[in-house]
Specification:
Elements lengths: L2 H10 L12 H5 L12 H4 L28 E10 L9 E6 L24 E5 L5 E7 L4 E3 L5 E3 L2 E7 L7 E6 L18 H5 L4 E2 L10 E4 L2 E3 L13
Bound molecules: fe (ii) ion (FE2).
The site of fe (ii) ion (FE2) has 3 residues, from strand 7.
Length: 237
């Protein structure tokens, strides 16, 4: 095997395969035929894909979207978005969504027998600044059960979606919390073959951003593309 194909394989192991049988829905949605590669052109690397003006500063504080404060452990999630050369990705739109502290989403299809929180919707968005930095205020989401397998539970996580300046900076992924006992049994987390790549989805508890008498800080840096790239949420070539 050439060193080039070795490099390709090691890169592949940093991303989950389309088909990971232990994650049951991939059995239905994984493509059956080889993918068709589209030729790259300038529009992949340029051109705004969303309106920056619609993003308000208050969209980044999920604890202040209702008349009262949500229940749960307040957290500050911050980090930087970088490209494969370590350069900041500026003006990227980050959207996030998450369950409440009890592990329940405000969504019609979530029928987990845990309480909804009238003061928590669980959605936010923010733009990265000139250093590629972002931050959110939220509450720590709870673990929740799912019916993928017998007694299945998802580790606590926050869903992230990124839109940079072009399609090459698109990423949908999940951020986890350090030391979660559910990692070992989660087929989504473990669909990423490479251990170091899985570890990149786990945020780091951070004293620097922990605010006294207010909230615990977690850092979650995101790398778009390249060897150190943050893994996609399943289904990535
Ligand atoms: Fe989720």
């Amino acid at each position: 095997m050439s060193s080039q194909s070795n490099a390709r394989n090691s890169l592949r192991n940093t991303q989950p395969p389309y088909l990971h049988p232990a994650y049951v829905s991939t059995q239905k949605r994984a493509p059956l035929k080889p993918l068709i590669l589209l030729p790259e052109n300038l529009s992949h690397a340029s051109g705004p894909v969303f309106g920056h003006e619609t993003v308000q500063a208050s969209d980044a504080d999920l604890t202040r979207q209702h008349s009262g404060e949500p229940l749960g452990e307040r957290i500050l999630v911050s980090g930087r978005v970088l490209d494969e050369e370590g350069r900041p990705v500026r003006g990227a739109l980050i959207e996030l969504w998450q369950a409440n502290a009890a592990g329940r989403y405000r969504h019609d299809l979530d029928n987990h027998a845990a309480p909804l929180d009238p003061n928590f919707t669980g959605c936010g968005r923010v733009l990265t600044d000139d250093q590629g930095a972002y931050s959110f205020v939220s509450i720590k989401p709870g673990a929740y059960p799912w019916r993928n397998h017998e007694n299945g539970w998802r580790p606590a996580h926050i869903h992230f979606s990124l839109f940079g300046a072009g399609i090459l900076s698109r990423l949908v992924t999940q951020m986890y919390f350090p030391g979660d006992p559910l990692f070992a049994r989660d087929p989504i987390f473990n669909s990423i073959p490479d251990e170091a790549a899985r570890a990149r989805l786990i945020s780091v508890f951070d004293w620097q951003t922990t605010k006294a008498e207010y909230a615990l800080g977690y850092r979650f840096d995101i790398v778009l593309r390249g060897e150190k790239s943050t893994p996609m949420e399943t289904s990535h070539p």
